[in-house]
Specification:
The protein folds into 2 domains: about 5-65 and about 160-340, QueA-like; about 65-140, Thrombin, subunit H. A hairpin with a 4-residue loop joins β6 and β7 (about 90-95). With about 350 residues, the protein is of the alpha/beta class. It is built from 7 helices and 17 strands. The protein is globular and about 60 Å long. α6 crosses α7. The chain has a 9-stranded mixed beta sheet with strand order 2-1-17-16-14-3-12-13-15, covered by helices on one side. The chain has a 6-stranded antiparallel beta barrel with strand order 5-6-7-10-9-8. It has helices spanning about 135-140, 160, 185-195, 230-245, 255-260, 300-310, 310-325, and strands at about 25-30, 40, 55-60, 60-65, 65-70, 75-85, 90-95, 105-110, 115-120, 125-130, 170-175, 195-205, 225-230, 250, 270-275, 290-295, 335-340.
Amino acid sequence: MKKSDFNYQLPDALIAQKPLANRNASRLLCMNRDTGVVVDRQFTDFIDLINDKDLLVFNDTKVIPARLYGQKTSGGKVEILLERMIDEHHAIAHVRASKAPKAGAIIELAEGYRCEVQGREDDLFALEFKGDDSILNILEKIGHIPLPPYITRADDESDLTRYQTVFAKQAGAVAAPTAGLHFDDELMAKIQAKGIQTAFVTLHVGSGTFQPVRVENLEEHLMHKEYFIVPSATVEAVQRARARGGRVIAIGTTAVRALESASQSGTLQASFGDTQLFITPSYEFKSVDALLTNFHLPESTLLMLVSAFAGYQAIMNAYQHAIAQSYRFFSYGDAMFLSR
């Protein structure tokens, strides 16, 4: 298949710029991936669509305030978006400036912080943050929540909590695992009260998730790296769900990527490290039976993933239905449940 096969026209008015007042107030488009039948529901119905044999797998990554503003010693303005932290003082980042800074250049940040450009790694820059404070401490003091590029407003104080899941734990993502944004503490309590088991993986979502596929032939696309962890406790939870005849339900495409990356031997194994797994139609899923996800950008790797999971034509039809019914799209938008 080609990149252009995954294009669709979306009115700008359907791109959610802000979250709804309540996390679980979104709509839920449900599609049976075997029949292609689409049903319009509310997200509060999700609890009724799962049972005590099922296992919900969440991504517990935590979004860091990874956007920084500063200036070069020459006075030129600089915007930094961290892609990943290497250690407490070194990171790989996107750097926007009128002229790309060279190795050795110092970038002055707020409150006296500064970093030095160490060199280039393709389109990214290697940075060293000076002083005793760790990168995480610096970000907590002067960083901004890195809202996606299709959200055209500046971040505000509400994004500190709303662009973060209620179960976020492992700091390192620069984008939220957005399917998880629909869950609040009340719904998590209802899931537990219903006897539905939960497990967690970690996948630190990188800004590469928003990067367009630049080649028409998908086989030529180089997938961005993302760090993931699938702990042994989650592997055991999946095995127990299989034994009792339940479904493994991934909450978000990031949970899918983690589980499937840890299943490349043919069976799910406790794993950690970088993944560049690129899931496109014809991929055979090994560990995921159902998927809760938001709506994804045209020609994006995530749209290709959900098309692989539920069928290309079925997904494209479902997206046209969602547009016709004025669903809200992308990070702060509505959700889709793909089941069998």
